[in-house]
Design brief:
By secondary structure, the chain is an alpha/beta fold. It is built from 13 helices and 14 strands. The chain binds adenosine-5'-diphosphate, aspartic acid and magnesium ion.
């Protein structure tokens, strides 16, 4: 593969209907001279359905027929062989039957189940590209060396040893890679967390030294606020890596929070583009850019935030008190977003509701702990805010 290749990631919203898939094909065909490598999500709605199946299967009433129907409808609409996905859909149905039988859905089995979304979509896309005369090959990321830890449901990649580039180099035609998925040291399939295909795209971009990473979605780029909530939200033409990572981390749902890191490491520009309006310039995210115009770039939010307060008078004369608090957070895998401290107390926010009871119990050994659920975190993003007077007052 050439050193000027680009990564093109298409999200589920770009793959939901026959028309969208035809559109994706045209977009890729028009950029064929840039030697694209595709990374794709499951078709719209599939991962949500699989999550629901994983939740209900142990109780015995999960139904895979809607997943089967959805794929069959797309195969029909695209004039592809209707048995194209028999192997994947068959394995999926067997797995769900097994989950019902043993009344269990361990995190490992749940990730295996979720993997079928992307394993099907890459095959649909590759078959359609070949039918249209563009040579393409479906590739499972876990087969070409995207390795992760064994933290099912939110796995983190482990260092790549150039095997990804080597394996993808052998692919004939356009590689169409599964987003969202990896494999741990024991050989289990893992997932990178919801929206993880953005992250996959950046990991592949890094491994292949891509010239650019394109995230194709259903809006005109990264916007000044969530367009589903804020009428008049506008696309942001250009952002820095620092701004984009803050925006993603604090809830801007257009990018997975870890996406920017692998791109930043190799200074690969990330472009967010609209599949339904391909000529729109979208947003480009660059290592640095000359600031101009508005200091405040975007307002993002995160729901379901817990406010945890630890009051501990002995904190007053103790060294290393905060270190203790954060060691406990680390042990319970609680990501602390914001922290405020006084002489006798520390207040922090976190969103891992499932891990909080154990975390708070251990924290209780240091002082009195109280937890307030149902908060939201609102983040005003802009690299110039720190050195522009008066923004906080205006906010
Ligand atoms: P995809 O299937 O392409 O991954 P997602 O649904 O994961 O799509 O992400 C795109 C959606 O993110 C948009 O449709 C938009 O409604 C939402 N969104 C939330 N916050 C923002 C933001 N600040 N800028 C752009 N889109 C946002
Ligand atoms: N299909 C996965 C999800 O819905 C990954 C992705 O779309 O990025 O979360
Ligand atoms: Mg997404």
């Amino acid at each position: 593969r050439s050193t000027t290749m680009i990564i093109m990631k298409f999200g589920g919203t770009s793959l939901g209907t026959v028309e969208s898939i035809e559109n994706v094909f045209r977009i890729v065909r028009d950029r064929i001279d840039r030697d694209p490598v595709l990374v794709v999500s499951a078709h719209q709605g599939v991962t949500n359905s699989l999550v629901e199946i994983a939740r209900t299967a142990p109780g015995g009433d999960a139904d895979v027929s809607m997943i089967e129907d959805l794929h069959h409808r797309l195969l029909n609409g695209l004039d592809l062989p209707v048995d194209l996905l028999d192997e994947q859909l068959g394995e999926m149905a067997d797995l769900v039957r097994g989950m019902k039988l043993v009344s269990e859905a361990s995190p490992r089995v749940r990730d295996l189940l979720l993997s079928f979304g992307e394993r099907c979509s890459v095959r649909v896309l590759a078959a359609y590209f070949n039918q249209q005369g563009l040579r393409a090959q479906a590739v499972d990321a876990f087969e070409v060396g995207l390795r992760t830890d064994g933290n099912f449901g939110r796995a983190r990649p482990v260092a790549d040893d150039s095997r990804i580039a080597e394996n993808i180099g052998k692919v004939e035609g356009i590689p169409i890679l599964t987003g969202f998925l990896g494999r741990d040291a024991e050989g289990n399939i893992t997932t990178l967390g919801r929206n993880g295909s953005d992250y996959s795209a950046a990991l592949f971009g890094n491994a292949l030294d891509a010239e650019e990473i394109q995230i194709w979605t259903d809006v005109d780029g990264v916007m000044t606020a969530d367009p589903r909530l804020v009428e008049g939200a506008r696309p942001i033409p250009i952002m820095s890596f620092a701004e984009a990572s803050e925006l993603a981390y604090y809830g801007g749902k257009v990018l997975h929070p870890a996406t920017i890191l692998p791109a930043m490491e190799k200074s690969i520009p990330v472009r967010v583009l609209n599949t339904h309006s391909a000529d729109n310039p979208g947003t480009v995210i660059l290592p640095v850019y000359e600031e101009s115009g508005a200091v405040v770039r975007a307002v993002v939010h995160k729901n379901d935030i817990h406010l945890i307060t630890l009051v501990s008078p002995p904190m007053l004369q103790q060294h290393g008190f905060l270190a203790k608090v954060f060691r406990i957070a680390e042990a319970h895998e609680v990501d602390v977003d914001l922290v405020a401290t006084s002489e006798v107390s520390i207040t922090m926010t976190a969103d891992r509701a499932d891990h909080l009871p154990a975390f708070c119990e251990e924290l209780g050994e240091l002082g009195d702990v109280s937890v307030e659920p149902d908060h939201a975190l609102i983040c005003v993003v802009g690299q110039g805010i720190a050195h522009t007077r008066g923004i906080a007052a205006q906010v």
